Amino acid sequence: MAQISESFHYVRSEASNFTNALPIQASQFADLAIVSGQAAGPNRVWITSLKILSIQNLDWRVEFHGRSLASKPTYTASGYLGTNSLQGYVGFTNNAATAYGTCYLYYTHGLKIPYEDQDGAGQLHVNLLNQHSATAKLPGDTGAVFIHVGTIDAS
Q1: 20 to 30 A from 13, CA-CA: which of 5, 51, 65, 142?
Q2: What is the pTM of this model?
């Protein structure tokens, strides 16, 4: 009888990852380490949960790309200019947020998004898009956003 074991990990953004001001329909990407200290390679995981902690109550879309978006155009106010590496995404509206102190918390679980780091860098390539219809994300600490992604190894 085969034995199946799962290894659950969290992938977290850093304070320096999403610091740009984001006009409506603009985005910022980050390359997040899938597992701290893990050797690089074509990592395969299942994305199972997503949590966003945000200073502003906006509509968010978090995209997961197989390749880094560094030096590639992403979303701008004029539309999508990006890559064909999109592997999945999760959207949140501002009415889905829970007030959490002076921040807003967005959370979903039960996701089953297959993800492969096609760059072989041991990273989750994330693009955060501001989809609010009337409000821009503020820069720096006044618009701080943290992303926390739950994953299970798929190898």
Answers
A1: 5
A2: 0.87
